[in-house]
Amino acid sequence: MVRYATFLSEGMRQRGHDVEIWAPKPFLTNNRLPESIKKWLRYLDSFVLFPLRFKIQSRKLPKNTLYVLVDQALGMWMPLLRNKKHAVHCHDFIALKSALGQIKENPTSGTGKTYQRLILKGFSKADNFICISQNTQKELIRFLGKDPERIDQVYNALDPSFKPGDIEEARTVVGNFVKRDLKEGYILNVGGNGFYKNRIGVIALYTAWREKTKSSLPLLMIGYRPSANIQAHYEVSPFKKDIHFLVQVSDELLLKGYQGASVFVFPSLAEGFGWPIAEALAAGCPVITTDEAPMNEVGGEAATYIKRCPSFGELPTWAAESAKVLETTLQMGAKERAALIQKGLDNAYRFNRERILDRIERVYKDIIA
User: Fold this and answer.
1) CA 95, 97, 98: angle at the middle one, nearest 5?
2) Which helix H or strand E contains 188, and what residues bound it?
3) What is the three-class DSSP state of 230?
4) Torsions phi, psi of 297, nearest 5?
């Protein structure tokens, strides 16, 4: 959310607009009180002091000011904007769908369900929405139960630093980081520990592939330190010595990771957009991802697809089938691989930063007008 807010604010300032970012501040929690007390003080900071401060500050602004919620998860603030010009950016509804029992892999607590209902009730009062994918737009309309006054679909924008580079150099840099010779290549995955990133599925897929192939390409998993559950699946893999978790990776190393990879594997269960898919394609890396929206929306004809990973009880069967796709992709000839990479580069142009900002600016201007 912070990253997206920075992207919007900097982009609009470059286009000559005055931009301010408002958010709750830790007035009451800026002390050394016990965490149990701070928890409740944070609620006061967010739901009592911030609304008061908002009402006072907003009176000083011109009537044609546009108020933007950078994520629909901020829907509880929508009542403050109801009679003002506004726009709500919608990213993903994974938490909301989980709370409503629509994602079986992620059961939600009672308080979580209540919180998501408050968010839904809030953003349902908005009139103008910008969705980061066609899939998010369809889901939004379903949740609203009506067509809003305005709804636009504008993809996420890629950082222009994601582009192809020298493969040998990239593999040397990444190899130095993991302390391993990677000149023959490696399989890459990027993602956090959230259930929907399916890192357990990645380990199962890699294990199934290694059991059927003569290759010994390692698996590099960039992201957070693995959770206990992910670590447990890693420990039982007979190929764990070839599985490397890369934690606290810089943006530069992430880019090198994409540039040097033999293939990028991203069997996500759900996404709002799927940043890593676009990043890998833009960096000239072949992509294998899930054949469901929005992953296949972002990958288009440039990615290779596998079925969505079913419940973990069916994980071995899914992994075995997906391993065949991985092997086929790795065995592509030079011409076929080059053609696939070019498709990826062409596809990634849809997420050009300046084009995306231009589209968002037009929507903002239309709402103000």
Assistant:
1) 60
2) strand 187-190
3) helix
4) -70, -40
